[in-house]
Amino acid sequence: MRLSYQWLAELVDLDGITPADLAEGLTKAGIEVEAVAPRSPRLSGVVVGLVKAVEPHPNADRLRVCQVDAGGGELLTIVCGAPNVAPGQKVPTALVGAELPGGAIGKARLRGVESHGMLCSAKEIGLETRLLPKEQTEGLYVLPADAPVGADVARLLALDDVVLELSLTPNRSDCLSMRGLAYEVGAIFGRPVRFPECADGSGASGVLGTGGPAAAAGAAEVRPGVAAGAVPARSPVTVRIETPNCSRYEAQVVGGLVPGPSPLWLQMRLLAMGVRPINNIVDVTNYVMLEWGQPLHAFDFDQVRQGTIVVRQAAEGEVLVTLDGERRELTADMMVIADPERAIGLAGVMGGENSEVTGRTRRIVIESASFDAGNIRRTGQRLGLRSEAQQRFEKGIDPVAVHGALVRAVALLREIAGAVPEGGIVSVGDPLPAPRLVAFSPARCNRALGTAIAESEMRAVFERLGFEVIGTADGGRVAAVSSDGSPAPTAAVEGSGGEWTVRVPSRRMDVAIEADLVEEVARLAGYEHIPSTLPVGPSAPGLRSPRQRLHRRTREVLSGAGMSEVVTYTFRRAEELDALRLPADSPLRRAIPLLRPMSEDRAVIRTHLLPGLAEVARYNLAHEVAGGQVFELGRVFLADPARPAAPPREVTRWAGLWFGHTEPSLGERPRRYDFYDAKGVIEVWLEALGSPEAAFVRTSEPWFHPGRSAQVQVGGRVIGSLGELHPETASALDLLGAVYADFDLDAVAELVADGLWTEELRVRRLPRHPSSRRDLAAIVPRDVPAAALIQEAQAAVRAAKPEWTVECRVFDVYQGAGIPAGHVSVAISFVYRGPDRTLTDEEVSDAEQAVIRRWQERLGVRLRAGF
Q1: pLDDT per residue over 363-419, tens digit each?
Q2: For the residues 129-143, what does the mean pLDDT come to?
Q3: 530-543: burial string, b at 16+ Cβ within 10 Å, e else
Q4: Which residues pair with 631 in a beta bridge?
Q5: What is the mean pLDDT of the chain?
Q6: Could you say which DSSP state residue 244 is in?
Q7: Under a CB-based contact definition with an 8 Å cutoff, are residues 34 and 26 in contact?
Q8: Is the dihedral of CA 757, 763, 768, 770 positive or negative?
Q9: Which residues pair with 210 in a beta bridge?
């Protein structure tokens, strides 16, 4: 939300308050000011100039020599290259010595002709060209014919204004208008508010004191276009409300219009607030929306069939072409403004092209309404629309402003466009809600804040905010005090012991309970005056749960092993699961669809982590990253087929992906990541977590390459799997040769809870005696896993020498020449170590023979000759 300092100064007394002071005060009161910037910095010495004559430059085809009256008595010779310069134009003229946002202006000789200044474009004087019509951004910025020659352009175009950028919280919808901001600033600084709040909207500028409006007593009600005491003529428009989503609808028909440019002051005020000027009709509706916070819309009344407006729900599949030219198919939960034959607008969001105000429009009907905030928000989200009007409707509007804003718009159209109201205002819908009364206790307020604020100061805070306060209890009757400090009739008080009743104005919809009033006292009294105190009472240090410790340790170990953690979207595209080659009945295929997805790429909740990691890998490879190893720790969501309506089961997993090539290192060339890179990281993770011995067994999961993958078991339970991606999966994901691992951390946590996996680190005494190493190469049938060779070897050594330790590692796998068909050669290194001495060669040979015999008996393998 933008805030014009000069516009605010017309509504609130800001004497002695600079823009910086204003920003500081707003921020301290809870309304964050993100930026304070002048509309056009360093603009001076630029005046309105009248182009008297234009001649071709004698030495340049694209330059013109202009004679300009800048109000100084003598004509100035100025060389100009703008293609649209013409005699009779009034344009911004930078005199010699002028300062522009782009620099200073001095005398210059251009192709032999001396130039005494510069004729300026909109961009050169600091206007926001993105908000201007195209014709005003090409060449010189042409000023209106009534612009006084010699006038200061900075003041004429309000370029000496300062704009504040506000970041509003969702509950402060009242500050989406100058009206609400005026009351807020008046309350913060204790200044009177000068907003025209007359009930009849006649525009009488009664001064509003710090407590609220001071309407003239006994003033006659005057309807627009109707003499005092006269009966308003019958309006030519009829309004029907046929939906509960519209609580009030007011309409006024206005004729005698000729669409055209708005006055310069109105255009500049809209530009300062970041709104594009269009024409006098649309600009008035936008101006009043910014002033009152009440969105308005103007329909071409001659296009409203039968002179009837119907507020209703759309028919399912009904089509409306909106003002942006888009053909939109509507659903039954969307609200439309219609005539008896068709929809002419999308209520609270955007008008229809079939009732648009054009250059031929002569009569309009102005809409001012109160729509259901939730309905407007859902409609805008579903259609992907976002407008200033929608932003205000979805946050809630002041019901009192519905009528006041409409009257204000009619008055402005009469003033700047010569409009003639036809009949009176048609009002349909619920009556205005009763004033909101909120119970308040000064004692409870001080207890909640830990302060000792006097009751008189609290009363002053409420009066500054425009709230009406009923005073302290006195025998069950109290003296009421109105917002401007004048006495009011006495009234009964609910409760006793100093309780107040506070009447909250309708514009402050965020104040509904006592806690809201306490907050207002804290804001206006100043948060800085609340004393700082330390918590009292016992405090216990926070501890992580076993699952949290497991997750943290997993992240630490994987990062320490050289992997990079990533976070991917939980919402995925349903078609991504096709790459995993899942069977039709797989639970992983039952991805839960979102009711209102952001896009097709975010339509379902993920059941697998591989598609997200693959997206990260593809992005890196496309940006010339040779390869990498990444992991994610997150949740997948699995539906229960037996209970489709039940919430999904959430499973926490970590998954890793090794893709591309390794980084070159000393003595090692880049190579593709393989199965053993992933297995090494997983073994480091298992060991760091104090895992008992894990078994790597063959797996048949469809996204893995058969024979190059393994399932990891601990204590007979499956905790995860790893392997090279299946060629079809790798091709579908565009990740040839990548290796993937996926582990169930919930299953690991259960092992810890069952005592099968300890969280304590396991350590071994450093060996005191040298070890003995032997290597064996065995010719093995291809269906015998290498893990079986290691398990049988370790079992053979434990049976013969239980006190020994033996470490086994596969260091080579070969198939080809010299190896029988259907077999592979697996080379394994053995490291033997005794507990109390160095082993002899004979002892090691005996153990080696025990391993060979067990292999032959149990697995039918034989040693590879010549190894």
Answers
A1: 999 999 999 999 999 999 888 888 888 889 988 899 999 999 999 999 999 999 989
A2: 91
A3: eeeeeeeeeeeeee
A4: 565, 656
A5: 87
A6: T
A7: no
A8: positive
A9: none
Whole-angstrom distance, CA of residue 173 vs CA of residue 398: 9
Contact 200, 222 (CB under 8 A): yes
DSSP 701-750: -TTEEEEEEEEEEETTEEEEEEEEEPHHHHHHHT-TT-EEEEEEHHHHHH
| Main-chain dihedrals φ then ψ at residue 4, nearest 5 degrees | -85, 125
Mean pLDDT of 346-366: 93
738 within 8 A of 621, measured Cβ to Cβ: no
| Token pair belonging to 521 | 């006292």
DSSP letter for each residue of 500-513: EEEEEPTT-TT--S
Taking residues 633-647, what's their average pLDDT? 87
CA 693, 694, 700: angle at the middle one, nearest 5? Answer: 165
Beta partners for residue 725, in sequence order: 704
b/e code 790-825 from CB counts within 10 Å (16+ = b): bbbbbebbeeebeebbbebeeeeeeeeeeeeeebbb
3-state secondary structure of 830: strand
> From CA 90, how far away is CA 842, in angstroms rounded?
111
Total-model pTM:
0.66
What residues have CB less than 8 Å from 218, skipping those under 6 apart? Answer: none
pLDDT at position 558, please?
96
Cα pseudo-dihedral 680, 683, 687, 690, rounded to 10:
160
